[in-house]
Amino acid sequence: QLQLQESGPGLVKPSETLSLTCTVSGGSITGSYWTWMRQFPGKGLEWIGDIYHSGSTNYNPSLGSRVTVSIDLSKSLFSLKLRSVTAADTAVYYCVRHAGDSRYDYWGQGTLVTVSS
Amino acid sequence: DIQMTQSPSSVSASVGDRVTITCRASQGVRNWLVWYQQKPGKAPNLLIYAASNLQGGVPSRFSGSGSGTDFTLTIDSVQPEDIATYYCQQASSFPYTFGQGTKLQIK
Predict the structure, then answer these.
(1) Which residues of chain B have pLDDT under 70?
(2) What is the nearest CA distance from A94 to chain B, expressed in angstroms?
(3) Which of A26, A25, A65 is CA-nearest to residue A49?
(4) How many angstroms separate the most distant Cα atoms in chain B?
(5) What is the mean pLDDT of each run of 10 residues along chain A (117 residues)?
(6) What pLDDT is stored for residue A42 in this prediction?
(7) Strand pairing class (B10-13; A111-115)
(8) Degrees, nearest 5: CA angle B106-A92-B85
(9) Cα distances (angstroms) measured from residue B93 to each of A54, A90, A105
C-alpha cells in the first residue's frame, strides 16, 4: 500500500522560505506525477505544482517564481520550496500522487504550515 | 485559469435519498474532471476520475457523468457516512483548479 508522508516546519516567518518534504513508501516513485496541493483555512483547495520522475515540472503561475518542486529518486521523496512567504500562504499542504488520467489517488495526511512572526 | 463552479454549496438529504451535485467549468475540460470527498480533519479522498471512472474501493452508489463543461456527481441512496464536503477539480489545463465545495448534511 503506497503511503505519502509530509514533513517540515509547522511555523515559518514572513519573507522566509517554506520547505516541505514528502516521503513515498510502499511503492515506486517512478512512473507517476508527484503533486503538491494546499488547502486554505477557508477550505479552498489550490494546485501548487507537480513533478515527474524525469524531473520535468509544472507550476501554478499564481505563485510566480516563488515555487520549486524537486525529486530525489534515490531517497524516494519529493520536496516543495516556497520562497518569500506571507500570511496568505498559511494552509494545510498535501503531497499527492497523480497516477495519470486525472487519478489523484494517494494523499499524504497533510501538514499545517502557519506563516507568522 | 479555468473557473470551476459547484452547485449547490450545501445540500441536506435524508438517508436513502438520491443527491446530485453539479460542477460547471468556465471552458471545456474534455473529460478531465475529478471528484473528491473530504471529511473533517482528513485529506480529500478520490471518488471519481476522468469524469465517470469510479476509484477502486469507492461504493457503487457514487457515480459521475458529463464532459466538456458540465459534470454531475450522483450519490444513490445517501448513507450517514456520506456526510462530507465534495469537491470537483479540472485536470485538463494548467493550472488545475477546484470548485468551492458542496457540503452534504443528513436531515
Answers:
(1) none
(2) 8
(3) A65
(4) 38
(5) 97 98 95 96 95 95 96 96 98 96 96 97
(6) 87
(7) unpaired
(8) 15
(9) 21, 25, 19
Q: Which residue has the cell 438529504?
A: B13
Chain-chain contact of A103 with B49 (C-beta, under 8 angstroms): yes
Mean predicted lDDT score pLDDT of chain B: 97
B61-81 pLDDT, tens digit each = 999 999 999 999 999 999 999
Written as nine digits, the cell of A93 is 499542504
Minimal Cβ distance to A62: which of B34, B43, B95: B95
| C-beta atoms of A102 and B45 within 8 A | no
CB contact under 8 A, A103 and B55: yes
The grid coordinates listed for A52 are 515527474
State how far the Cα of A102 lies from the Cα of B32, in Å rounded to an integer: 6
Q: From the CA of B74, how many Å to the nearest CA of chain A? A: 19
Q: How far is B6 from chain A (nearest CA, A)?
A: 12
Helix (H, G, I), strand (E, B) or coil at A84: coil
Instruction: Say which of A62, A94, A102 has its CB closest to residue B32.
Output: A102
Closest residue in A to B88 (Cα) is: A45
Alpha-carbon dihedral angle through residues A6, A7, A10, A11, given to the nearest 10 degrees: -120
